[in-house]
């Protein structure tokens, strides 16, 4: 470039030439995607690892669920088999019990059992290894101590008495054909407790009435012959028979060893009047009137006036009855 000179008056300024040099420009080449092509996306290792963990957790959960389903299925099968086995065992036990009962009752045909099927004799006494001799000659003076000794271990565990009762099973079974007659079978409360023909209490037969001479009761020997009578608790249809027995055998005292209802099960029909001066007429041959009633903590004493009326003739007697509330 040529030097430039400027003259102003007497001064002269000389400017040195300025040389300007332009550096070359460097252009970076950027790759651009042409139309129709997708740009490659960079891979994130963290995202990829999280996805793998999610899949792993899902597979583990599905495996656990499958194991639980299989376990529940196996348990249900086991429970079903146990229940079925218990049911079959119960049926087998019932069939054995029924067969034994049928053997005992082979003398007559079993009828359909109703409310009186509260047979307490199905109770099985436990087996005992210690033999206790049964004493049949206990003096009266020693009897209270004997009872205390038999029940001394535990009031709820009468094992010694149970052994004695068990040993009674060796007594041979005698004939009880009268109790199994068709007109008498329904007069028994239980289907396997009958009075023997030799010791049963016969009643005076009423002409034209089948079964009028039968009651489920047996004589019990005392010091002077037949001093006591053991009878079943009356049924509704045997209240007349019960009071005729009391009248005919001049029974002075009645001791009832059960309640009318125990554990919601009927054990005895109420054969006495409910309130004072009330009168019942069992069989239309006797009248029973409650003359007095005295309750105690554990028992109840009632005095009953019994009258027999026949063709205008009237006879009466007073009986004392001890019952449990």
Describe this structure in words.
The chain has 325 residues and is of the alpha+beta class. Among the domains are: 121-171, no CATH class; 252-325, no CATH class. Helices cover 27% and strands 19% of the residues. The strands form 4 sheets. The chain has a 5-stranded mixed beta sheet with strand order 5-11-10-9-8, covered by helices on one side. It has a two-stranded antiparallel sheet with strand order 1-2. The longest helix is centred in the first third of the chain and has 60 residues, at 45-104. It is elongated. Residues 1-14, 17-21, 25-40 and 104-130 have low confidence and may be disordered.
Give the topology:
Blueprint: E1 5-8, E2 11-14, H1 45-104, H2 143-150, H3 159-167, E3 217-222, E4 225-231, H4 239-248, E5 253-255, E6 261-262, E7 265-266, E8 279-280, E9 286-295, E10 300-310, E11 313-323
Organism: Geodia barretti (Barrett's horny sponge)
Domain Tyrosine-protein phosphatase: 161-308
Protein name: Receptor-type tyrosine-protein phosphatase H
